[in-house]
Design brief:
Elements (H helix, E strand, L loop, with lengths): L19 E9 L2 E10 L2 E9 L5 H18 L4 H8 L18 H21 L17 E4 L2 E4 L8
Antiparallel strand pairs: 1-2, 2-3, 4-5
Length: 160
């Protein structure tokens, strides 16, 4: 760089030593996908995604998508923008119907990122004692304890 030139390179935010987040499992045509979304200051900061057996191309592609999403998040790209790019990507086979339809691994990652980010936002807006858990029925992080029962705010599942 010469004199007077500025560096326009976007630098990702450094990762704190400790982060917390939520993990969910989602069924895809290629097997169960496990997605962990870690947050920093209440916003998604990074994701980890695992599917299948180590050494397969699907595992490699899934890890690559997660790494690139994490880099985008750390560089300030909005969750909505990332989700828009992933949701709706079709694959050879889909699983489920209607709003629960999973068209591909990227679609599943996009849907999971949207749901977990929304759940984290919802949890922050509710009083501090409100904990969200993973729903055993739909797999989203939207299970709350209300009036002595566990209820999923995403699919309506109830333990009572």
């Amino acid at each position: 760089m010469g004199d007077g030139e500025k560096d326009d390179t976007i630098k990702p935010t450094k990762r704190p030593k400790t982060l917390s987040g939520h993990t969910t499992s989602i069924r895809t045509a290629l097997g169960n996908l496990f997605v962990t979304v870690n947050t920093s200051d209440g916003k998604p900061f990074e994701i980890f995604a695992q599917i299948g057996k180590a050494g397969s191309d699907v595992v490699a592609f899934t890890e690559a998508i997660a790494r690139l999403i994490s880099l985008a998040l750390r560089c300030g790209v909005s969750v909505d923008e990332i989700v828009t790019q992933l949701e709706g990507i079709g694959g050879a086979r889909s699983v489920g119907f209607g709003p629960n339809r999973i068209m591909s691994v990227p679609d599943a990652i996009g849907q999971t990122l949207r749901k977990l980010a929304a759940a984290d936002t919802d949890a922050e807006q509710v009083n501090g004692n409100h904990q969200l858990e993973i729903c055993p029925d739909c797999g989203t992080c939207a299970l709350i304890r209300a009036e002595g029962c566990l209820k999923c705010e995403a699919c309506g599942f109830s333990e009572c």
